[in-house]
Amino acid sequence: MKKIDRFKSYMKEHENLLSCPICGDSMDVQDHHVLCRQNHSFDIAKKGYVNMMTQPVHTKYDKELFEARYQMIQHGLYKPLHEKVAEIVGERQSVIDLGCGEGSHLTDITRLTERQTIKAGLDIAKEGVMTAAKYHQDTIWCVGDLAKVPFKQASFDVVLNILSPANYQEFKRLLSDDGIVIKVIPNSGYLKELREAFYDGDDFDNQDTKDRFKESMHEIDEYRVTYQKPLSSELLPLLLKMTPLTWNIEEPVELDITEVTVDLDVLVGKGE
Ligand SMILES: C[S@@+](CC[C@H](N)C(=O)[O-])C[C@H]1O[C@@H](n2cnc3c(N)ncnc32)[C@H](O)[C@@H]1O
Ligand SMILES: [Zn+2]
């Protein structure tokens, strides 16, 4: 089956979850677009995703960054994180990743749960969603804004939000009864080898982000996932390309590192 046909049939199967980002009405998946009863229409791309933005947005995240993230994740950069998050997701049946980037977190985490999961991934960067659609299937891949997610209220058991901005009011709207938000944020050791090389080891503090999560969500659990990932020489250029940490670095820097630290906090909360 062609990529677009497989995508359309997956979307059609789950069209009851969609809501129009303009008027909030239900949506019908048709041949080349998704349409609400007020005739607000969004194109389905041949590459297997749907663009639900109401106006185009330019972001600094480009194709090269998402390709590099994809390759690094294939090499296991986030494997221990995925194992921890999959354990938290457990038996839950539907997952949306908001700020999904190139989609590997969602695919790898749901694969580890060994359940048939309903999956959706949304990102404001079209290049991220295009990369996701290139590598992963059986997911509603969607270009959209996480502040106005084109899915109905109470439509997901899990909202994932990994290394991306949050909008807790919108996340809570999406959660089913007993649904959970899993937010992953960096802690002080995260990619410290790069921050030491480029920023002389800047002060790092994620307390404000944690406080905002705690003010917005209930029944919080918190886990820290910390490990070192060995780096072969071919992975180093990919590591430099996959992160905004190198965006403002103009001079080429000789880096001599053989491993990189991953140090993340996993915050889990319920809507009420
Ligand atoms: C550091 S990247 C992380 C991407 C992915 N979760 C990962 O870990 O590989 C942050 C992502 O948040 C996305 N993002 C930023 N603002 C957003 C918004 N308002 N709605 C949806 N996505 C957004 C960016 O486009 C980018 O893909
Ligand atoms: Zn509409």
Tell me briefly what this model is.
The protein is an alpha/beta fold. Helices cover 31% and strands 27% of the residues. The chain has one domain: 3-Layer(aba) Sandwich (Rossmann fold), CATH 3.40.50.
Question: What does this 3D model show about the protein?
Answer:
With 272 residues, the protein is of the alpha/beta class. It has 9 helices and 11 strands. The protein has helices spanning 3-13, 63-74, 79-89, 104-112, 126-135, 168-174, 192-199, 207-216, 235-241, and strands spanning 27-29, 33-36, 41-45, 49-51, 94-98, 118-123, 140-143, 156-162, 175-186, 218-230, 259-270. Bound molecules: S-adenosylmethionine and zinc ion.
What topology does this entry show?
Layout: H1 3-13, E1 27-29, E2 33-36, E3 41-45, E4 49-51, H2 63-74, H3 79-89, E5 94-98, H4 104-112, E6 118-123, H5 126-135, E7 140-143, E8 156-162, H6 168-174, E9 175-186, H7 192-199, H8 207-216, E10 218-230, H9 235-241, E11 259-270
Parallel strand pairs: 4-7, 5-6, 5-8, 6-7, 8-9
Antiparallel strand pairs: 1-2, 2-3, 3-4, 9-11, 10-11
Helix pairs in contact: 2-9, 3-4
This protein binds S-adenosylmethionine (SAM) and zinc ion.
Essential attributes:
11-stranded mixed sheet; binds zinc ion; alpha/beta; globular; binds S-adenosylmethionine; 272 residues; single chain; Rossmann fold; 9 helices
